[in-house]
Amino acid sequence: MSERFFVASPISGDLAALTGDEARHLVAVMRGKVGDEIVVFDGSGAEFTARVTAVGKHAVELAIGERREISRELDFSFTLAVALPKGERQKWLVEKATELGVTKLVPLLTERGVAQPTAAALERVRRTVIEASKQCGRNRLMEIAPPAVAATEFFDAAPAAATRFIADPSGQSIAEISARDTAEKFAAIGPEGGFAPAELAEAQTAGWQAVSLGSRILRVETAAIALAACMALGRTGGE
Ligand code: SAH
Predict the structure, then answer these.
(1) Cα(149)–Cα(109) distance, rounded to whole angstroms?
(2) What share of the chain is helix, strand, coil (3-state, %, to 5)?
(3) CB count, 10 Å around CB of 121?
(4) What is this structure's pTM?
(5) Residue 150 DSSP one-character state
(6) 173 lines ligand 1 (CB under 6 A)
(7) How far apart are CA 134 and CA 39, in angstroms?
(8) Which 3 state secondary structure label does DSSP give 31?
(9) pLDDT tens digits, residue range 25-56?
(10) Distance 197 CA to ligand 1 centre (A)
(11) Half-sphere exposure of 204 (CA within 13 A, CB side)
(12) How far apart are CA 143 and CA 102, in angstroms?
């Protein structure tokens, strides 16, 4: 895959520009110059060939060529809801979730969780999604739900027809659970302190299946990516 760049505003005509971090990446890191051919995407699902026509300090101008509708998405909608860790562990989680094809990441508010991301933190998350998408070839960005979704509300709101797994060390082993072929899938991971009994009870009342990821206690980000990988790759048991 050739070098990919993200264009922040939707591409419609035959001109576009790279700005901010993307312009810096092309100019300072890749030593891009007028005449270079690159691939750009705007997060809407397509990618485009583009030629560099002008290089400025803060912006790079592009002539847009061929539009290609290339989907590297999963064939179902996959929502990953997590009581997010902070800092580097959060960044790692977001990067890997993007690579695995998660459709939407929902930061969960839980009884035992720490405070949820600020606007600045969410902006960093968005940047991580873009970086990971450039690298892995996704032309659609993983959506980040607005913060402050209470876990219990989230459990109630997910449609009953969807596959809904809540990660819980006392649940049934993921290897024993049959994968169902549903158009929507949901996974929920608790905070470092675990889900509170009332949260687990609410999930089970709403029809969520508690799944165990083995006999060791995993960090939040490990649990999230282990479960996301099983579900994204269709590798739950019993198929
Ligand atoms: N102290 C908690 C563990 C929290 S680990 C306890 O003892 O229950 C953080 C989250 O990761 C958990 O809420 C759960 O969603 C998930 N998790 C960690 N290890 C897991 C495992 N072995 N199986 C299933 N989920 C796990």
Answers:
(1) 6
(2) 30, 30, 40
(3) 17
(4) 0.94
(5) E
(6) no
(7) 10
(8) coil
(9) 999 988 999 999 999 999 999 999 999 999 99
(10) 13
(11) 14
(12) 9
Positive or negative, the CA dihedral 45, 46, 51, 53 is negative
Question: Both tokens of residue 103?
Answer: 């459709």
pLDDT at 121 over 90: no
Query: Where is 61: in which H helix or E strand?
Result: strand 59-69
CB of 112 sitting under 6 A from ligand 1: no
- Could you give the CA distance from residue 133 to residue 136 in angstroms, rounded to a whole number? 5
Model pLDDT for residues 180-201, shown as the tens digit of each residue: 889 999 999 999 999 999 999 9
Q: How many CA atoms lie within 13 A of 31 on its CB side?
A: 0
Distance of CA 58 to the CA centre of its chain: 28
d(Cα 127, Cα 37) in Å, to the nearest integer?
A: 24
SS3 99: helix
Residue 50: count of CB within 10 angstroms of its CB:
25
C-alpha 10/C-alpha 67 separation (Å) is 13
By three-state DSSP, how is residue 234 classified? Answer: coil
For residue 199 and ligand 1, the question of a CB distance below 6 A is answered with: no
